[in-house]
Amino acid sequence: MTDSSALIQGIFSRVTARNAGEPEFHQAVHEVLETLPGVLTRHPEYVDARILERLCEPERQVIFRVPWQDDQNQVQVNRGFRVGFNSALGPYKGGLRFHPSVTVGTIKFLGFEQTFKNALTGLGIGGGKGGSDFDPKGKSDNEVMRFCQSFMVELARHLGEHTDVPAGDIGVGAREIGFLFGQYKRLTNRYESGVFTGKAPGWGGALMRREATGYGAVFFLEEMLRVRGEQLDGRKCVVSGSGNVAIYAIEKLHAEGARVVACSDSDGIIHDERGINLVTLKRIKEVERGRISAYAEVHPEARYTAGASLWRIPCDVALPCATQNELDREGAQALVAGGCRYVVEGANMPTTPDAVALLREAGVAFGPGKAANAGGVATSALEMQQNASRDHWTFERTEVRLREIMRHIHSEAHQTADTYGHPGDYVAGANIAGFHKVANAMLAFGVI
Question: Which positions of the chain have pLDDT values less than 50?
């Protein structure tokens, strides 16, 4: 073991001990740290300034009670979180997740990932994340509104256009952003459009923000194909999930000539060899907020299977777009056996470490989330630009800019991997490139 490797192992041991019971956070930290020994060897100034130790400790963590009344006038109590992980490159930027699985460990893992992802965009935003164990599924609009208003009573004091800028994530869409921003505006008596992103276009939102994460993942995939002398047209794809990221990844894949034959939700999968019908999928998920099983009722030639694995369907390309650790080693083995050659993460850390290792050993090109799904936060930063200048860009202008950003992220990750002796390893390339940006800013600011 090299001196740098031993140093990193010691740091990781202290992180796990100090953050007990937070396996997702441990996983995210380990995935970054294990790619950095060569960086520390070349740059001892990072070691002297204890950059890694500081990077693994959030700048601030806020946990608060969220009481609200349901439609039966019963008082409910949830827990709210906001973690500002690193502001070396700009204000904290990262979404809010409303889901029963949310814990402080979940939020810390997401905020840590967000720090490097945001750095890769080159748009001057730091890393943060927040949310609650509140479940909006099955709640009325009034219940969601009452929860959001109570949540914002506490959170508002920690936000600001130049301090901390939330957006949406799982369970937080345009409806929730509207309620949250309305309460923030009421509490502060200021119309700070840039304090939230993911807003509706009619009141400060950017066109294409809804599509951005899914589109961006496909743009990154196209760059992966291009450097290998291949193209997307004619590829058979599977996309896990059926939420915002999955739907718009499917939309862009179809637009570029690929065919998506399967998608999923937490109950099961839909397999439609003709290609997923987006009109039906959007109606079920975006309008009716229903379950994906309803797809087979409209398209009887498609097959719905409860509790099945999407990864067993033969494909050329797989995009995990649902949630963390959804693609495990068994799923990766099934993808390899089915001929998959490209895996691109649309969600945050959806692939387990042993699955990533298996895919790379099998020669599958792997695009990690902190690079491949950066399109959402990149477009959020573009929304902040428009808000700051009281401007409103066309869909086409935003899409062109997003494609440029994703092309730059791919190029930087690809070249950095080569520079540090990891050719073709986008995980190492993205981690090292993002780390350099954050670490250099931290060095410039001194010990803070």
Answer: none
Does residue 375 lie within any of the structural domains? no
Residue 65, domain extent: 60-191
Long-range contact set of residues 173-179: C-beta below 8 Å, sequence gap at least 24: 173/198, 173/244, 174/198, 174/199, 174/200, 174/205, 174/210, 175/141, 175/144, 176/96, 176/98, 176/136, 176/144, 176/148, 179/144, 179/145, 179/148, 179/149
Q: Does residue 265 form part of some domain? A: yes
If one counts every other C-beta atom within 10 angstroms of the C-beta of residue 71, the result is: 10
Give which of 53, 27, 35 is closest to 447, Cα–Cα. 53
Q: What CATH number is associated with residue 170?
A: 3.40.50.10860
Quick one: 154 and 258 in the same domain?
A: no
Query: Dihedral of the CA atoms 218, 221, 222, 227 (nearest 10)?
Result: 170
Residue linked to tokens 């509490």:
187
Distance in angstroms between the alpha carbons of the first and the last residue of the chain: 31
How far is Cα 165 from Cα 287, in angstroms, rounded to an integer?
27
What gap in Å lies between CA 83 and CA 27, rounded to an integer?
17
The pTM score is: 0.92
Q: What is the pLDDT of residue 100?
A: 96
CA distance 61 to 128: 10
Residues 174, 110 share a domain? yes
327 within domain boundaries: yes
Structural domain total, the chain: 3
Q: Is 385 part of a structural domain of the chain?
A: no
pLDDT computed for residue 1 by the predictor: 55
The pLDDT tens digits of the residues spanning 180-199 come to 999 999 999 999 999 999 99
Query: Are residue 320 and residue 230 in the same domain, yes or no?
Result: yes
Catalytic residues: 129
Distance from C-alpha of 219 to C-alpha of 213, rounded to nearest angstrom:
10
Nearest alpha-carbon partner for 317 in 331, 333, 348, 338: 338
Task: Return the structure tokens found at 115.
Answer: 């720090």
106 plus 218 within the same structural domain: no
Whole-angstrom distance, CA of residue 132 vs CA of residue 47:
36
The answer to whether 302 and 295 are in contact (CB under 8 A) is yes
Identify whether residues 94 and 39 lie together within a single domain: no
Both tokens assigned to 322: 């649902």
Give residue 65's pLDDT.
98
Which tokens hold the place of 330? 């068994």
Is 362 found in the same domain as 214?
yes
Could you please report the per-residue DSSP string of 248-292? HHHHHHHHTT-EEEEEE-SSEEEE-TT---HHHHHIIIIIS---T
Rounded (10°) CA dihedral 122, 124, 127, 129: -110
